[in-house]
Specification:
Layout (H helix, E strand, L loop, with lengths): L12 H4 L7 E5 L2 E5 L2 H9 L1 H8 L3 E2 L6 E2 L5 E5 L2 E5 L3 H9 L1 H9 L5
Antiparallel strand pairs: 1-2, 3-4, 5-6
């Protein structure tokens, strides 16, 4: 489960309600990156490698959409894969009630 995360500020675009087609984009090293605003894209462009490394491992809780580093995230198993989440039992249980919705939301294919 992957969601778009602004590689400068580390915010989930899904949490911010910004779809892929509405995000600001910037290409670096053959990869297209998506940003919440032009300001983040401009800051990223000043030192892209630093920001790619700083935010590359961030994960997003599928339920509350909180951004976490792997060290701060918790996981549970769903359909044979580990799902990172914020650690809140409510988020874990809510996800399990409608996993398809939360997976699609993280992918940006259903509204926030």
């Amino acid at each position: 489960m992957k969601t778009l995360i602004d590689p400068y500020c580390g915010c989930s675009l899904v949490r911010l309600g910004i779809s892929k087609d509405k995000a600001v984009t910037y290409s670096y090293d053959g990869t297209e990156y998506y940003f919440c605003c032009q300001g983040c894209a401009d800051e990223f462009a000043r030192d892209p490698e630093r920001h790619v490394q700083r935010t590359k491992d961030l994960v997003v809780c599928p339920t509350c959409l909180a951004e976490k580093t792997p060290e701060l995230a918790f996981t549970f198993e769903y359909a044979g894969q580990e799902v990172p989440y914020c650690g809140c039992p409510h988020c874990r249980e809510t996800f399990k009630k409608d996993p398809d919705f939360y997976i699609k939301r993280l992918e940006g294919t259903v509204p926030k």
